[in-house]
Amino acid sequence: MSGTKATPLSRRALLWVPLGVAAAGGVGFWAMLRGMRDGSYDPRGVPSALIGKPAPRIALPAVEGIDLPAFAPDALAAPAAPVLVNFWASWCVPCVVEHPQLMALHRRGVRILGINYKDKPADAARFLARHGNPFAALVADAEGRAGIEYGLYGVPETYLLDKGGLIRWRWAGPMMPDTLSAELDPLLRRHA
Amino acid sequence: MRALLFALVLAPGLALAVGRPSEMLPNPAAEARAQEIGRELRCMVCQNQSIEDSEADLARDLRRLVRERVAAGESSDAVRDYVHARYGDFVLLRPPFNWVTAPLWALPVIVLGIGGLVLLRMRRRQAARTGPAPLTDEERARLAALEKEL
Predict the structure, then answer these.
(1) Residue A49 lies in a domain
(2) pTM for the full predicted model
């Protein structure tokens, strides 16, 4: 019978299985740790459920005391160029860290629509006066309604909408200079 | 005595209920339904608590949303689907069955299957090792006859 001959070989191969599993696990774990260190992997990160879907249509008022127009929900349906929707608040410390990147994008001509999340209008005005205004339009989400519509779980959070009004990218947390170069810029080029 | 016992049994429930009375729906049946929905929704900020258990801001917003929709007469499934559509599979504490979560659900079955196969093989090998059954009287007689012929 051929089976009797094959058995010792397959048994010897079986000895390598635990070693192989451990090695694969080790490589995976190493990749995870490396990703966590350079920021490309976030174990608590959750992909947005809205990728590839149209941006939520929610009408919100302009922020009182800030000389910026509100944007109508229809403005997100078919923008002339890709736009960013940025959730921010004056009470949010990472938003301060992110702000220079928003200003840089604004200077490059990227249209950024701001959603001021659960903020006091006076505080928001002070924030923009101090750090500069990158927004083409700004609305107030005092109750966090728009946040829920977008599936937001913290500020800042940024969404990229293509010309069809579909959400192509979501960044939870502050966008850093390398976020722009590594993630956003290629997408802006692709959807331009 | 009985009244005291009754009060003790009810006390924890009451304590929970007065924790945030302003949030609760006036209709107890609707409130119970809202709590049932909320207990299956994950708080995205704390990640290991339901929105009913969490004091995070976002959890409070979601609790309010669930209650508004329940009060408006929406079905429990519709409310759950509303939150699921915006927050994805992760918001459901009981993950749904779809092609992304299929490995998760299939894993116990696969492991059980492998275990069963290993057991089956072990048993078969053991059966092979015990060797053939002893000869019956008839076979022994035939063997004796054959030997005599040689």
Answers:
(1) no
(2) 0.72
